[in-house]
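quick one before i forget lol
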Amino acid sequence: MLHIEHFNNGWMNPVLAFGLSFIGSVLGLRCAVHAKASSAPLGWLIAAAVGLGGAAIWVTHFTAMLGFSIGGAPIRYDVPLTLVSAVIAIVVVLIGLTIVTGGGNEWVTLPFGGAITGLGVAAMHYLGMWAIRARAVIEYEPALMAMSIVIAVVAATVALWFMLHVRGLLMTTGAALVMGIAVCGTHYTAMAAMRVHHGDPMTVVDGVTPVQLLLPLIATVSLVVTGLVIVVGLAELEVGESRPD
């Protein structure tokens, strides 16, 4: 069995992953607040899904993956599969948000939406892992894999509950901290389930290196987060100005 390193760059990757998850969660939660107050909430729900599914979940996953390595087996990533995993993260969060904000009994819609979102997030993670290309065979320990899926469903349900009920900035900050811990916990539990064995040394490894994905990732995340900050900031300013003195 090959040695797996999850902290190749020390604590930089997990700390950065948590920070990005926190920022994405804050933006997603604020977008959800505006969606509930809007007569046309779809745009805000999409923005919330991008903030939570894209920045808080998928970017956190891939940032943490930049610290991942397999001893004696350089890794590459399949770009199309990696991009599909990002789309899945955003879409399943949007589906979950649509379910829980569409009316109906919250005791029904919340677990249903949480299950769909959580299973989708787990699918995103394992699809992202499937995108790894290396001269190695990757397997998963069933118990830890099942635990990671359960954590993903619980974390998604909690996140959707926060989306429904969190209002003020203080509550948003606290909720985002909890969500950041939950997202990172899901990722590292799933990573702990990995078992890597020697593969065929003649296998041709295609794809791109983690470093080659880093610059596009930084550029995309910067644009998306900046855009969400501007949109949310303008909306907060408009709400503040509309309040009576």
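fyi The CA atoms of residues 3 and 71 lie 5 Å apart.
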